[in-house]
Amino acid sequence: MAKPHMNMVVIGHVDHGKSTTLGRMFFEKGLVDASVIKKFEEMGDKGKTFKFAWVMDRLEEERERGVTIEISYGKLETPKNEITIIDAPGHRDFVKNMITGASQADAAVLVVAADDGIMPQTREHAALAFTLGVGQLVVCINKMDLVGYKEDICNKLKAEIIELLRGIGYRAPEKFVYVPVSGFHGDNVTKRSDKMPWYTGPLFEEALNTFIVPEKPLDKPLRLPVQDVYSITGVGTVPVGRVETGVLKAGDTIIFEPAGKTAEVKSIEMHHEAIPQAVPGDNIGFNVRGLSKADIKRGDVAGHPDKPPKVASEFTARIAVLQHPTAVAAGYTPVFHAHTAQVACTISEISQKLDPKTGAVLEEKPEFIKKGDMATIKVAPTKPMVIERAAEIPQLSRFAIRDMGMTIAAGVCVDITPAK
């Protein structure tokens, strides 16, 4: 029997060692040949530093700059599960790619460097992961070699991270696994470190086995947000994305919204193998008959014509403001990132200011909201977009709001006024 499959995203501040820790694990598990690491080492000083990170960072530009830009995927088997690892970028310029990664994830590894502690993206990524519905975390306290493998430094940082996660909204964050590691030297990644005899918990690799694969929403209507569209010679038009809910079968007729275009699914591929049907969690490419590459774009959502994805002319949402230099008022038009779509939307009304702890209404129709506030708002997209109610299809109800190169707020859609 195939093991249950889940998607895991690795998040955290830039340069905290996300790619290095993953690369080290792949190397120690024999999933990357030693000759590959050796080749990286021979590519000069940068190669010596980034030899493990480069296992995940395949783009030339990422190697040049030493940062992760695109989302890269790797596969890993634990005794219980098969995990697709989404290595998300930590650099603030690339947060929109990280949002796409987190919105596809069932679980996350949060990497925090022991020498730096909690940094701006640590906070931002953790808040986004929570809002995007990632309920399970493993926290990796990395670079322990740079703080002399000291237990007290680890414990102090662990307490700070628990406090941060609780403030964001995670319930019982003290129950998550916190693993002190050195990704670069391989301490506690797949082998127990003799430098930290005080740590008796699971190794990083073992901690991944604590994740529980969520129930697949098979009985819900099909929703498949498009991430990319390719035109492949001899095959035709191939949209790529992840099934969020429902089942897609070869031979199905589907509709893409908000484009309103229908097509027939000729074939479905996953990991370069043809499959008869795709279920929630599957990252797939599927060949459609009757549409060209120009007809479909990233941000469109595929569904079945009898229960098509909902296109909103307006929607009501509940948001938490993460950061803003001044305040957010009605008339503000930032970019909303929902599933794979990025649409400028106007906040037409701030209906209520809420208590972040209890959700109780603090103020009706406030003039503005600021960092730390929670609110119910009305939103008018500047062009048609697909979004769903949290009560019906939570997977497509979540979004992040970005402006000025930062994530302003994150939230969920609670009600929709459908487009005509």
Can you walk through the features of this model?
A hairpin with a 3-residue loop joins strand 7 and strand 8. By secondary structure, this protein is α+β, with helices and mostly antiparallel strands. It folds into three domains: 5-210, P-loop containing nucleotide triphosphate hydrolases (Rossmann fold, 3-Layer(aba) Sandwich), CATH 3.40.50.300; 224-303, Elongation Factor Tu (Ef-tu), domain 3 (Beta Barrel); 311-418, Beta Barrel (Elongation Factor Tu (Ef-tu), domain 3). Helix content is 19%, strand content 36%. The strands form five sheets. Strands 2-3-1-4-5-6 form a six-stranded mixed β-sheet, sandwiched between helices. Residues 66-73 and 90-94 have low confidence and may be disordered. It contains nine helices and 25 strands. The chain has helices spanning 18-28, 34-41, 44-50, 53-56, 60-65, 95-103, 120-131, 151-168, 204-207, and strands at 5-12, 72-77, 82-87, 107-113, 136-142, 177-180, 224-232, 236-242, 248-249, 253-257, 261-270, 273-275, 277-278, 283-289, 301-303, 311-321, 328-329, 335-338, 341-354, 361-364, 368-369, 374-381, 385-386, 398-403, 406-418.
Provide tags for this entry.
420 residues; alpha+beta; Rossmann fold; Elongation Factor Tu (Ef-tu), domain 3; 3 domains; six-stranded mixed sheet; six-stranded antiparallel beta barrel; 9 helices; 25 strands
